[in-house]
Amino acid sequence: MTISPAGPRGAGQQRTASPATVPAGAASVGAASAGAASAGAATAVLDRAAPAPGAGGGPAPRRPSRLRALDGLRLLAALMVAAYHYGGRNGDISRAWGSASQIQFPTAHEWFAYGCLGVQVFFVISGFVICMSGWGRPLRSFFASRASRLYPAYWAAVALVVLVFALPWVAYENVRPTDALVNLTMLQQPLGAERVLGVCWTLWAELRFYALFALCVVLPRSGSVRQRVVLFCACWTLAAAIAQGLGHELLDVVVMPEYAPFFIGGIGLYLVHRDHGDAVGWGITAAGWLLGQRAAVEGLWHPAGAHYFSYRSAAVIIAVVTLGFAAVAAVALGRLGWADWRWLTVAGALTYPFYLVHEHLGWVAVAGLHRGLGLPSSATLPLTVGLMLGLAWLLHRYVERPLTPLLRRSLAPRRS
């Protein structure tokens, strides 16, 4: 999660997440009104300081209603990632089950292995929502919305995992105190520190995307916003393709050739959302999909072999990536406007905190339920997901709702 998460309104200004964030995705979102401010602080509501019609070099948005279907899509992506972490891989989760995931889920583990592609779906959503969030917004406001969206729940999740792993009956080792403190910055990846949260690598990707978008779209004031967005997508696509070919380590870190197509595709879909007849937006989206499916196959496909956990078909990888793009496109075109249920807002609000805590604390829950209480894996899996969603609600209610607007106001105080 986004991965930053995102819970969008029509086409006004907003904030994602994600991350992922998703993540945050990843993409996350801010709040727009007093009632939405608390719920949106978590993930689901997009800031909506709507620009005047035609502002920013594009036509006025046609659909002012909230895009609740995008909230649901974010939660679905998070559940895909959870399925992967609980039953689609080996490693620490096998210690929690007491045996390999293939034994616990002899058939389903092959499908759970595709759940890692939920991260790519998060990145597409993040591209959509961050473009919406940064459209015509001052740099300070954009920075405040991103920081206030990502950090409160993240800080709480890091502290919670460190505390739980410090319990004597928990079988997992904590990171060193110095590394735990570095984790609070969200910069542990480039510094080479041990990670408290396994999913934080996606947040590092989100941070780099935010920085590139801020430098190339939000900060400059020459030309229209639309011109800057299109130029940004064109230059980033070219840079990612060059970086992929060169294999230069620093260039890879900056332009992220394996993830850039998904963010770029999401930006293209936001342009489509602003104007259904936007051929340029469709072109950007198509380029993102074409490059993204190859990046996903290159990163996840391998020949079948007994020493691999599972075999992922290239055709299924492409299909899942295509469905992710298609789902966000359906939201962009208003095809899912019927999915306007209020509970989707809550689902979107829980996505980011759920994404943060589900992996490491899920290990503890699985061990307690399956090996401690003797529950079968078929019951342990949904119960663990339910427990993590409940914990996500607590983080949303008692951390994000009070702290997100407070941090945002402190970073970008309103002028009297």
Structure characterization notes:
The model is unreliable at about 1-65 (pLDDT under 50). The protein has 17 helices and no strands. The protein has helices spanning about 35-40, 70-85, 90-95, 100-105, 110, 120-135, 140-165, 175-185, 190, 200-220, 225-245, 250-255, 260-275, 280-300, 315-330, 345-370, 375-410. With about 425 residues, the protein is an all-alpha fold. Helix 2 runs parallel beside helix 16 (about 345-370), helix 11 packs antiparallel against helix 13 (about 260-275) and helix 14 (about 280-300) packs antiparallel against helix 15 (about 315-330).
Largest beta-sheet details? none
Query: Which oligomeric form is depicted?
Result: single chain
Low-confidence stretches: 1-64
- Quick one: how many beta strands? 0
Along the chain, the helix and strand elements come as HHHHHHHHHHHHHHHHH
- Gap between N and C termini, in Å? 35 Å
Determine the structural class based on helices, strands and strand pairing: mainly alpha
Determine Rg (CA atoms, Å): 20 Å
Indicate the percent of residues in helices.
55-70%
Write the layout of secondary structure elements.
Blueprint: H1 34-42, H2 68-87, H3 92-97, H4 101-104, H5 108-112, H6 118-134, H7 139-165, H8 177-183, H9 188-191, H10 200-218, H11 225-246, H12 249-255, H13 260-274, H14 279-300, H15 314-332, H16 343-372, H17 377-411
Helix pairs in contact: 1-16, 1-17, 2-6, 2-16, 6-10, 6-13, 6-15, 7-16, 7-17, 10-11, 11-13, 11-14, 13-14, 13-15, 14-15, 16-17
Please give a quick description of this structure:
The chain is an all-alpha fold.
